[in-house]
Design goal:
heterodimer, A: 6-stranded antiparallel beta sheet, 49 helices, 8% strand, B: 5-stranded antiparallel beta sheet, 5 helices, globular
Chain lengths: 1028, 146
């Protein structure tokens, strides 16, 4: 059997299917003697993966072997556990593996440490409790165990903050290693424990990153290792390399930097190719800190550019990419393209071509330095030519965002229209030239870009007959190699080219209307109708929607209504995925517990014993219900979604049909293949293939131009970050949000629906949600004076116009240009005194200033009445003149305006009743006894620890008062370190909160008859405390 | 972390493969083929590292290989491993094989695949370097053979 299994392994390795032997491998591991078991385990770890179902059969065997007295069996079990083990089964073996950490034999301790590390990688939250044991492993008396625990720390210290205190230990360990305190066994080529040193250096560099005080601890030891590692062996170079990296990563110290720089020099100049490679890598890493170093080695770098080794070349280009600046960009891009043309490795092409595109877009022609070397005209041709190269070399391997970005640059343009048009003109010219040549080998993505540009901007080129353009495009359509997607692009380009050539278009439409592809057929039909009906064509530019200025409601506020209805109907509130994950893990941990106690427990008995409490089950069922509810949500809200889509624009920023096609004037003759001429007379020195020293010098000077100027900051290509060639227009979303809002919106996009529900419920009005919901809910943009009409550029312009039409000419339209700046809080708090008598006594929120302009200012506050939420809007007149009339229009389908009274002078009040807002809770006034009874009768409970506010004398009381103010809760009683709080829904469902001070945290226990309410309240408590 | 360890001969026939991450059977074969193509066309006098450009992972992973007589030893590692360190680890691995088989040759790998795997398991466990000391590895392997 053993022999056969080895053969099966061999077959599997050669790629033949040997799945029939899998079960036998498991059997062998289960039943055989030690030798058979070893082969069995080996076969299992080769055959099966972590998710394979047969692995379940192995769990018991592993458990048995872990408890075996035979060391070899334990070792094998640990190996297999670290190799393949199903995630779900980790809790079963975890305690056993943990025990092995204190095993007398060091090999077992080592393997156990690595197995635990593996567990940590697979399921970090299940091994959180054993961090202390990792620490013990680090201080193990056996260096081998300590070495294997370094794996764990290297991983953990990626987020270094909580491990800073270990720096001292790591430094001591490294010192001991360097001092030769380890047994001679650990020496490799008479270097003490080199791999250990490498790992320690890595850990230290992670710890010392951007932390001066920690870095200071390690200067000495780094110096020591730099000094020691000066023998001529590979492994010492490995240590040196790590050292250099560490020196440059941690807080800099001049003396060390100097030494490290010398080491890099040695690397780069070394005749050994591997060291050269490492030297280049180190340089790439270092130029971010110190560009002058690259300058020292420029000749070597030039040599490496022509090196025969592919890897070296690639690394050199990477280095050059880092030192690119406005002056050497053309040369570097040229080099990269040369390399790409000779390279046939897919991944490298994808990787580098993206960088070329990035460089080409990054360096603007209107920058002064660039003017010196290249005129704008030249820049245009260079840019287009480079992008042409990018598209034709990268072809369809390109990531989609490269052509997208390029088209966006062309479409959005920069500030000056003239420059944009020039660039577009170049693009059109160059593409026409390309299309006149051979087109069959061009990649699809290039063809798509070309057809789009020609469709959009062919009219700019007046010298070209439009028939010519159409002819070229139709020619493409006839080619067999053109994919149907590209055909669609071409057709939509043809649609955009304006009228006049009806005969050509009709022919084309005719031939395509019998096409197999339905999309094509449809487009052909549209094209035909469009070209026949001149009226329709004239109408088209009017119907244009500017897609760029469309707005995206990333907070999904249009779903608010639905969410809150669902919540009211008893659906579980949304839980962010990580929370769900945690709860699921808890569940799982409970399920599996019996496994670890008794070995022969069968699965069925396991499932019986794990019935915990009904509450736990209800939690999980609630969870699954929640996800179902979510999907249902998506389904049932399609109506609203549709509305939104139109605002957003289906094609994103790639307008195909909507874009403008203004009529073009008189075409003339004289075609100029300008771009080619331009390319030929480029002033840059083209490096000759013959590597004459002088050529190299010249190349070096052009490559490193700008680097020698001195100040290191401006030298760095990366950090310099010049303004992009065409500034992307700020997303409307961003521009509309004020400082406070933007914080909120970024916040809300992360956990979407729940957050927005919340913001709606607590609808503080300066937030953007109500505003966007207005504009998304009804498409005719009526709008309002009161509400935050987010100011977007173009679309808002016409909305603005609409508003004034509705309101009449003499209206002052207050737009939220300044929010909360002009009004000191004292002013606004006075406003509450102006509330009518019947509202004065109600609890109210702070008055928030919404917006103001020189003549009017708006502020609002919320009043909590028992059956409703009142929204009071204050309009104050800031000027001396009397306002005759105020028209306020609040538009939002979700808010029903019940009463609408308008007083002439100071303020008016609007009472809004909102069906959604009924979910808002009210304080529930009960006595402690009633509370006790009620507590027992409630079924759904949730527990969680919250942050305790510790800034005042009595933390509990402060915290509860803060909650009370923020959330309208009723504090029933506070006894010692415990407090009880109550609230209820408008509909009557109570929710009781029991709070206890638990160290620095507040242990909160919520109960309610309503399954979702505790979560909901808890969530708001968290928020309220976080904001406090 | 080490992602995979491959040994194949000058003709691209796999002699040992060990993956520390799961790939399907087909992918594994494709990885071996692709790696062979990449490695075999490189000259003797170029460096032992190859970056990116692999099915086995994007630009993050790299290949570190050594060529001995008829066999290529290729380690695929991610950025957390030191290149030269791995290069010497290959050396240690080969020297250990040499000691265990007394003048190792390709045939030893074919006929004692399990032993090769066992030696490897003592050096690298679940993708992490466990032991780099040759005599220690040999002691462990021999202890298990008893």
């Amino acid at each position: 059997m053993r022999e056969i299994m080895v053969r099966a392994m061999y077959c599997e390795m050669l790629g033949y299917d040997a799945s029939f032997t899998y079960i036998h491998a498991i059997k062998l591991a289960q039943q055989g003697g030690v030798l058979e078991k070893r082969v069995g385990y080996l076969a299992v770890s080769l055959f099966l993966n972590e998710g394979h179902e047969l692995l379940l059969l192995l769990v018991n065997t592993v458990l048995k072997d872990l408890q075996s007295t035979n060391l070899i069996e334990v070792c094998m079990a640990l190996t297999v556990v670290a190799q393949v083990f199903p995630k779900d089964m980790i809790p079963a073996v975890l305690p056993l593996v943990e025990d092995k950490l204190s095993h007398p034999k060091e090999i077992i301790r080592r393997k156990a440490v690595l197995a635990l590390y593996k567990f940590y990688l697979i399921a970090p939250n299940q091994v959180q409790h054993i961090h202390a044991k990792f620490c013990k492993a680090l201080s193990d008396k056996d260096p081998g165990v300590m070495a294997s625990s370094l794996h764990i720390y290297l991983q953990l210290i990626r987020s270094p903050d909580s491990y800073k205190d270990l720096t001292g230990s790591f430094v001591t360990i490294l010192k001991q290693v360097l001092g030769g305190k380890l047994p001679v066994d650990f020496n490799y080529h008479s270097v003490p424990a080199p791999w250990l040193q490498i790992q320690l250096l890595r850990i230290l560099s992670l710890l010392g990153k951007e932390d001066q005080s920690t870095s200071e601890l390690m200067y000495e030891v780094l110096d020591e290792s730099l000094r020691r590692a000066e023998m001529n062996h590979n492994i010492t170079y490995a240590i040196l390399y790590e050292c250099v990296k560490a020196v440059y990563t941690i807080h800099p110290k001049a003396e060390l930097l100097e030494k490290a720089a010398r080491c890099i020099g040695n690397f780069v100049l070394s005749p050994k190719i591997n060291l050269k490679y490492l030297g280049l890598k180190a340089l790439t890493y270092v130029v971010q800190h110190d560009a002058k170093l690259a300058l020292q080695h420029q000749m070597t770098i030039i040599e490496c550019l022509d090196h025969s080794d592919f890897t070296i070349k690639r690394e050199t280009l990477e280095l050059l990419f880092r030192i690119t600046n406005a002056q050497n960009v053309t040369v570097i891009v040229e080099k990269m393209l040369d390399f790409l043309r000779s390279c046939n490795d897919e991944h490298t092409i994808i990787h580098l071509i993206g960088k070329v595109a990035e460089l080409a877009e990054k360096y603007p022609f209107n920058k002064p330095e660039f003017m010196n070397t290249l005129l704008p005209m030249k820049y245009n041709s260079w840019f287009i030519q480079t992008m042409n190269d990018v598209f034709s070399i990268g072809g369809d391997l390109l990531q989609q965002d490269v052509p997208n970005n390029f088209l966006r640059l062309l479409a959005e343009g920069s500030e000056s229209k003239e420059e944009d048009d020039q660039l577009r003109l170049y693009a059109v010219e160059s593409y026409l030239t390309v299309l006149k040549g051979h087109t069959s080998h061009l990649p699809q993505c290039f063809l798509q870009v070309m057809s789009w540009v020609l469709g959009e901007y062919a009219h700019l080129q007046e010298s070209v007959d439009r028939r010519e353009v159409i002819r070229l495009l139709t020619q493409l359509l006839d080619q067999r190699s053109v994919s149907s997607e590209t055909r669609v692009w071409i057709l939509s380009a043809l649609t955009k080219i304006p009228e006049g050539q009806t005969d050509l278009i009709l022919d084309l439409a005719e031939s395509l209307s019998s096409s197999q592809d339905t999309v094509l057929r449809q487009q052909a039909q549209e094209l035909r109708h469009l070209s026949q009906d001149s009226q329709l064509r004239e109408f088209k530019p009017v119907a244009v929607v500017c897609v760029f200025s469309s707005q995206v409601d990333s907070s999904l506020s249009f779903l608010d209504g639905f969410v809150s209805e669902a919540l009211a109907a008893g659906a579980a509130p949304y839980k962010p995925p990580h929370q769900r994950q945690e709860e699921l893990c808890e569940d799982r941990a409970l399920n599996l517990e019996p496994y670890s106690f008794s070995l022969p427990v069968s699965l069925s008995s396991c499932s019986i014993t794990d019935r915990q409490s009904p509450t736990l089950l209800s939690v999980s069922s609630g969870l699954s219900g929640n996800s179902a509810e979510l999907s249902q949500k998506a389904g049932s809200s399609t109506l609203i979604l549709e509305g939104v889509k139109r605002v957003w624009g289906k094609d994103g920023y790639l307008p195909q049909k909507e874009a403008t096609a203004p009529p073009v004037d008189e075409p003339s003759a004289a075609v100029q293949p300008a771009s080619q001429q331009e390319a030929a007379e480029r002033i840059e020195p083209r490096p000759e293939p013959s590597t004459q020293n002088q050529d190299k010098q010249q190349l070096a000077s052009s490559l490193f131009v700008g680097l020698g100027v001195g100040s290191s900051v401006s030298l760095l290509g990366k950090s310099e970050a010049p303004p992009p060639r065409f500034r992307k227009k700020p997303r409307p979303h961003e521009s509309s949000s004020s400082s406070g809002t933007s914080k909120r919106s970024s916040d809300s996009s992360s956990h979407s629906s729940r957050n927005t529900t919340d913001s709606f419920l607590y609808g503080s009005f300066p937030e953007e949600e109500p505003a966007t919901s207005i504009s998304t809910f009804d498409h005719t943009p009526k709008s309002t004076t009161a509400n935050g009409l987010s100011q977007n550029k173009d679309t808002k312009e016409d909305r603005h116009a609409n508003t004034s039409q509705i309101l009449g000419g003499d209206m002052v339209i207050v737009r939220p240009s300044t929010i909360q700046d002009k009004h000191p809080p004292s002013v606004s708090s006075d406003l509450t005194a102006l509330l009518p008598a019947d509202l004065k006594d109600l609890p109210h929120s702070d008055v928030i200033s919404l917006t103001s302009d020189p003549s009017l200012s708006l502020s609002s506050c919320r009043l909590f009445r028992d059956e409703a939420l009142l929204l009071v809007i204050f309009i104050s007149n800031c000027t001396e003149t009397v306002i005759k009339d105020v028209a306020v229009q609040l538009t939002c389908e979700e808010l029903k305006v019940i009463s609408f009274c308008c007083k002439l002078f100071e303020f008016m009040r609007l009472i809004l009743m909102n069906s959604i807002l009924s979910v808002i809770h009210r304080p529930l006034v009960v006595t402690t006894e009633e509370y006790g009874k009620l507590w027992l009768s409630l079924s759904h409970d949730v527990k969680q620890n919250l942050k305790l506010l510790t800034d005042a004398g009595d933390p509990l009381r402060t915290t509860l008062n803060a909650l009370k103010d923020a959330l309208q809760l009723h504090v029933v009683d506070i006894i010692g370190s415990e407090g009880i709080v109550a609230c209820r829904l408008l509909s009557g469902a109570p929710c009781l909160l029991h709070c206890r001070v638990n160290g620095a945290a507040l242990a909160m226990w919520l109960r309610s008859p309503h399954p979702a309410l505790p979560d909901f309240i808890l969530y708001h408590c968290q928020r309220a405390l976080a904001h406090h | 972390m080490i992602k995979a360890i491959l040994i194949f001969n000058n003709h691209g026939k796999p002699r040992m493969s060990k993956f520390y991450e799961h790939y399907t059977e087909d992918t594994e074969q494709q990885i071996i083929r692709e790696t062979f193509h990449l490695v075999s066309k490189r000259d003797e006098n170029v460096c032992n590292f190859l970056e990116g450009g692999l099915l086995i992972g994007g630009s993050e992973n790299k290949l570190i290989y050594r060529h001995y007589a008829t066999l290529y030893f290729v380690f695929c590692v991610d950025s957390s491993e030191s290149e030269l360190g791995i290069l010497d680890l290959i050396q240690v691995f080969v020297e250990t094989l040499d000691k265990c088989f007394e003048n190792v040759c390709e045939l030893d790998l074919i006929f004692h695949l399990d032993k090769v795997h066992n030696i490897l398991a003592e050096m690298v466990m679940g993708g992490m370097v466990l032991e780099t000391n040759m005599s220690e590895i040999i002691t462990q392997v021999e202890a298990q053979d008893q």
